[in-house]
Write a structure and sequence with these properties.
Elements: H1 2-10, E1 16-20, H2 29-37, E2 44-53, E3 56-57, E4 61-65, E5 75-80, H3 87-95, E6 101-105, E7 115-119, E8 125-129, E9 131-134, E10 150-151, H4 158-171, H5 175-183
Parallel strand pairs: 1-5, 5-6, 6-10
Antiparallel strand pairs: 2-3, 2-4, 2-9, 7-8
Length: 185
């Protein structure tokens, strides 16, 4: 929250904000949602999730994004890719409910669930993905990823994506960032 407040002070004179999560494989769901709260004027339901338990789904757990204590009226461009995964996808899923956010890039990785950790009697540990996340439209993006509003057609092959992006940076620039700049000139 303190970093976002400083960031918004530093960017007070810009027309739009780019949040680049193309290389973010996850972390904490709460962090991405807290960042987006700065662009959310009122509490709203943003998605639901259920867990598999004893062969059936639990009741829906409705997830809400709180209204930001400080609000920015800037247009937000969320840059996403197949390397955007886990908690980054929760951020992207949340962004679907914010009119000020546009997603640019390619489908996210498609791995949403928190891990259900267990230990076997022999001490071995394992984790299972046992949750189902649904958008407000009832869409489950598990395994396919959340699509971009503005597609950049990044490769889903990790190194091909990295090398193509690097090659483009060296020759014609970052097409996602160039797109944003073209909208605000």
């Amino acid at each position: 929250r303190a970093h976002m407040n400083k960031l918004l002070d530093d960017l007070a004179d810009v027309e739009a904000i780019i949040i680049d999560v193309r290389f973010n494989g996850g972390g904490s769901d709460e962090v991405g949602m807290e960042v987006l709260s700065f662009f959310n004027p009122e509490e709203r339901e943003v998605f639901s999730k259920q867990a598999w338990y004893k062969g059936q789904l639990t009741p829906k757990n409705r997830v809400y994004l709180h209204a930001g204590e400080r609000l920015s009226d800037k247009k937000v461009y969320l840059l996403i890719s197949p390397e955007s995964a886990s908690a980054t996808e929760i951020m992207t899923l949340t962004s679907l409910e914010l009119a000020s956010v546009s997603r640019i890039g390619s489908e996210t990785e498609g791995v949403f669930s928190d891990i259900f950790d267990r230990q076997l009697p022999n001490g071995m540990e394992f984790g299972l993905s046992n949750e189902v996340y649904l958008s407000m439209d009832g869409v489950n993006y598990e395994g396919k990823g959340i699509p971009a509003d503005v597609p950049m057609n990044y490769s889903r092959a990790r190194y091909e994506f990295f090398y193509n992006l690097l090659d483009n940076l060296n020759t014609k620039g970052d097409s996602a960032i160039e797109y944003v700049l073209s909208k605000h000139q």
